[in-house]
Design brief:
- The chain is built from seven helices and ten strands.
- The relative contact order is 0.14.
- The chain has an eight-stranded mixed sheet with strand order 3-2-1-4-5-6-10-8, with helices on both faces. A two-stranded parallel ribbon has the order 7-9.
- It is an alpha/beta fold and about 230 residues long.
Length: about 230
């Protein structure tokens, strides 16, 4: 039985990851500021990513994988508030994961951070500095010495899609922009992130989105996904 830690476990994609891991009888430390109720397989753990010491304690013990799924929500957020969670908090988690002997770090990121788009413009207007923080924390993970997988997601929707499979393209080569054409449901994304933790090549970056026909990387599809070599125009 493997042992995982999910940071940002009380909502969104993090909550979906916890549920999927528990359903297959893997032990999960579900880390968040306000933890959910536990179960036989889920250990609720209260910690704030902005507290480096708390993260070091939370990630002690040599997890098979640490997932970082934290986002920040609210009105009139300052640039400093956003950076404290989206960049500095993530770096705290990386440092703690390395100190705790984690075997892999999976980062939920955002599609197309290096390519300008109107969607990124809107996100930056709502959350000042968001794009720079996404780029900076990816670079920090690449230089951290941890075995990592970065999964860049498009527009997220609630639920589990029973028709479309998760598709994956190698991020640096795909050149996909963040736009409204591509999306993925959180339940499907959670399963793709678990596949990434278990099977993706170490030190790799992927765009992960939903489509009925693919393309599906060799490591993806352990949840019954359809495989295809079709490529998408941008």
């Amino acid at each position: 039985m493997k042992r995982y830690a999910v940071i940002g476990a009380s909502s969104g994609t993090g909550r979906e990851i916890v549920a999927a891991l528990a359903a297959r009888n893997d032990a999960v430390r579900a880390i968040s500021r306000h933890p959910l109720a536990g179960s036989a397989m889920v250990e609720p753990y209260a910690a704030d990513v902005r507290d480096a010491a708390a993260m070091k304690e939370a990630l002690a013990g040599g997890f098979d994988c640490v997932f970082y799924t934290v986002d920040i929500h609210g009105k009139k957020l300052t640039r400093a508030q956003i950076r404290a969670v989206m960049h500095e908090g993530c770096v705290n988690a990386m440092t703690a994961a390395a100190a705790g002997g984690a075997k892999r770090f999976v980062l939920l990121s955002v599609m197309g951070p290096q390519r300008a788009s109107w969607v990124w413009w809107v996100l930056n207007a709502m959350k000042p500095g968001m794009r720079d923080n996404i780029i900076a924390r990816e670079q920090a993970l690449i230089g951290s010495g941890l075995s990592y997988v970065i999964c860049r997601a498009p527009r997220l929707q609630d639920g589990v899609d029973t028709v479309a499979t998760a598709a994956a393209l190698a991020g640096p080569e795909s050149g996909l922009r963040l736009d409204m054409r591509r999306s993925i449901k959180r339940g499907r994304l959670a399963r793709a992130l678990i596949d990434a933790a278990d099977h993706a090549p170490s030190d790799s970056i992927w765009d992960v989105f939903a489509d009925k026909a693919g393309p599906v990387a060799d490591w993806l599809g352990g949840w019954g996904g359809i495989r295809s070599d079709r490529r998408f125009p941008d």
